[in-house]
Design brief:
single chain, Rossmann fold, 7-stranded parallel β-sheet, UDP-galactose 4-epimerase, domain 1, alpha/beta, globular, two-stranded parallel ribbon
Length: 331
């Protein structure tokens, strides 16, 4: 097996824009880029989680809505990035007409506007924040050559967003790469299965009710996710056109993951698995063994699941950053 040698200083001094910079992944990558010596522009509608970054003045806040084509071009061209990480997106949610509209607007229009702005900059690499949800209920572990089978508005538009990236690569010679994480979790996270379960304990619920329970997830700690994105950026045009799947490397059922969280919290709450409550767009298997990511990037996840969960639980308890508990828990 051949291993990629990555220049760890490749991002120092680079001008880098992070769209969705105030979100979970965006704010983490802004912080890491600052540490690596990059000149960072955090692009978002609001400052959000950027307030957690210290020192707060170490980046430029670029107030912008990527669904506005003129504003996006003006903002990005003015900053003149050499590298752009595109995380701005409408999130996954329960399916309804308004959710489909939101995903089309945020994940397609926003991506197209950002691509056009970056083309006008003549930048070096466009890094697309993709998702393994585009595989739907395909076989696992995921491989670059696998066809996508999206089963939700979110995953359909994320898959199409990458196709637009690849179109710009073919039409304009723009270097583009897709990085597709599994379930990323960790400090600063928004609502997901882990915060749901922690919330059940902190809110003294009688039980943890799961929509399903047998479906599997492959949790990937946020610092490892960011490490893979940065590794791709350091390689630049060498990874253009590639799709890189990344995961924690451990497939675990939602019910088993819930039990692990409860154990780490010293809780004996019963787990109620309601298979009939699973969403029609549910992914039943989610797993990446990282073989290709290691070959392409020289990357493996470094944080084991228990360690990552302990750090996340501690953050959620200390900040009490747990949204109101909802009767679901598959995502």
């Amino acid at each position: 097996m051949t291993h990629t040698i990555v220049n760890t200083n490749a991002l120092a001094g680079k001008r880098v824009v992070v769209t969705g910079g105030s979100g979970f992944l965006g704010s983490h990558i802004v912080q890491r880029l600052i540490q690596e010596g990059a000149v960072v522009g955090a692009l978002a509608r609001t400052e959000g989680k950027l307030a957690l970054i210290k020192p707060h003045c170490a980046y430029s806040f670029l107030k912008c809505d990527v669904t506005d084509a003129e504003e996006t071009v003006e903002t990005i061209v003015s900053f003149a990035p050499q590298i752009l990480f595109h995380f701005a997106a409408s999130p996954d949610a329960h399916e309804k007409f308004s959710q489909a509209q939101s995903c089309i607007h945020g994940n397609l229009t926003g991506t197209l506007n950002t691509l056009e702005a970056f083309r006008l900059c003549g930048g070096e690499l466009f890094v697309y924040g993709d998702s393994c949800k585009v595989y739907g209920n395909s076989e696992a572990p995921y491989r670059e050559a696998m066809p996508v089978q999206p089963i939700s508005s979110y995953s359909i538009t994320k898959a199409a967003g990458w196709q637009f990236c690849d179109l710009y690569r073919k039409l304009h010679g723009m270097a583009t790469v897709s990085v597709r994480p599994t379930l990323t979790y960790g400090p600063w996270q928004s609502y997901n299965l882990i915060s749901f379960v922690v919330g059940c304990v902190l809110d003294c619920k009688r039980e943890v009710r799961l929509a399903g329970g047998t479906q599997t997830r492959d949790p990937l700690f946020v610092s490892d996710t960011i490490g893979a994105f940065l590794a791709a950026a350091r390689l630049g045009a060498k990874v253009s056109g590639r799709v890189i799947n990344i995961g924690g490397g451990r497939e675990i059922s939602v019910a088993q993951l819930t039990a692990m969280i409860l154990e780490l919290m010293g809780s004996r709450l019963p787990i109620i698995s309601l298979q009939s409550d699973a969403r029609p767009t549910e992914m039943w298997r989610n797993y990446c063994d990282n073989v290709e990511a290691n070959e392409i990037l020289g990357w493996w996840p470094r944080t084991d699941l228990r360690t990552g969960l302990k750090k996340t639980i501690q953050y959620l308890i200390e900040s009490r950053a747990v949204p109101a508990v909802q009767p679901k828990g598959s995502e």
